[in-house]
Design brief:
Length: about 350
């Protein structure tokens, strides 16, 4: 069998699957729904991954009775603790997609996507927030990233929930006046935020904090003090995640990359990235702060190519394909129908 890498970037909101050969040529790529096994269940999550992997294999012209790849590199949201990575590795190995399997947290894929060596720090701020770091000698630093119970603050869900919290308190008098209140009223097409809360409570409407997150940045751009404080806190949290990881790995005085990714960061232009870069460089002057310019699934594939001993030319070929805006196939896999 020709060496191939099956790369999976399993996020909370979407799953990306990429099949590449040992030379870095893209054989197939598909996207489908997010299916974190810790959220939807192990079997259902892996069934979604398998459907996407089999679809990629079919697009690449592989026979159904041959292994999809020689190595699977799966970087998954929710694989936050070593025990979870071990469980996922065992269950994915049972699926027989490839001869060898590696499972890691999806933030490591972001780091590899944004660097040539996988050394440095990556901070992702999308649905949630997380950071990982890798030193030159292979030492790693990571956070549990389990939410408030592990000290986390940030991500689209956090910002959206906090926006609703501030709007409620602005209306009932417990909090400061804020333009978040009329912004949320317009979003829900209601005259009172308490009516919104009541409808959420009785499950007449769904609370989707991620949909509220962009309102925070819109209101902050108009100078609202409450919204600006939320953005400021997010910037500070990203700086903390970055510098703590650098310090733990003795990289404060090293010319390493700090890679930023996730929808909350990449969709807000320089509002977050600019202040983060400025403050990180005050603490670590040699660091390079950059926003990832290829999808994290590319990082998963690059890590897989590292594992099978691919040449540096393979990385260049793969990156070039994405810089040329290689399209992906959208799958019709339904996460709720799987399993």
């Amino acid at each position: 069998m020709t060496d191939r890498v099956l790369a999976i970037d399993g996020g909370n909101s979407k799953t990306a699957v990429l099949l590449v050969d040992a030379d870095g040529k893209v054989l197939a790529q598909v996207r489908g729904p997010g299916a974190p096994p810790q959220t939807v269940g192990m079997k259902r999550g892996l069934d979604v991954f398998e459907e996407l992997a089999r679809e990629a294999a079919a697009l690449a012209g592989l026979s159904p009775d041959e292994p999809i790849a020689s190595h699977t590199a799966a970087y998954l949201a929710g694989a936050d603790l070593p025990r979870e990575e071990e469980d996922l590795t065992r269950e994915i190995t049972k699926r027989g997609w490839s001869t060898t399997t590696f499972v890691g947290n999806d933030t490591f894929a972001l780091l590899r996507a944004g660097t040539n060596s996988g050394v440095g720090v990556a901070v992702v701020c999308g649905a949630g927030i997380n950071a990982v770091g890798v030193a030159h000698d292979g030492r790693t630093h990571r956070f549990p990233a389990l939410g408030a119970i592990s000290g986390d603050w940030g991500g689209g869900g956090q910002l959206g929930n906090d926006a609703l919290w501030h709007a409620v308190r602005a209306e009932d008098g417990r909090g400061e006046p804020t333009e978040l209140l009329p912004a949320l009223l317009a979003h829900y097409d209601e005259s009172s935020i308490l009516k919104v809360v009541e409808k959420i409570h009785f499950e007449e409407i769904a609370l989707d904090p991620h949909a509220l997150c962009p309102l925070v940045f819109e209101v902050a751009a108009r100078g609202d003090a409450v919204a600006l404080a939320q953005v400021e806190r997010l910037v500070e949290e990203i700086v903390l995640l970055s510098t703590v990881s650098l310090r733990k790995l003795d990289l404060m005085d090293e010319p390493v990359d700090i890679v930023l990714g996730g929808g909350v960061i990449t969709n807000t232009g320089d509002v977050v990235v600019g202040p983060v870069r400025e403050r990180v460089l005050e603490a670590a002057p040699l660091a390079q702060v950059r926003v990832v310019d290829v999808p994290p699934v590319v990082g998963a594939a690059l890590a897989g190519l590292d594992t099978i001993g691919a040449s540096p030319g393979a990385e260049l070929r793969l990156r070039s394909a994405y810089h040329d805006h290689l399209p992906a196939t959208e799958s019709t896999v339904d996460v709720m129908a799987s399993g």
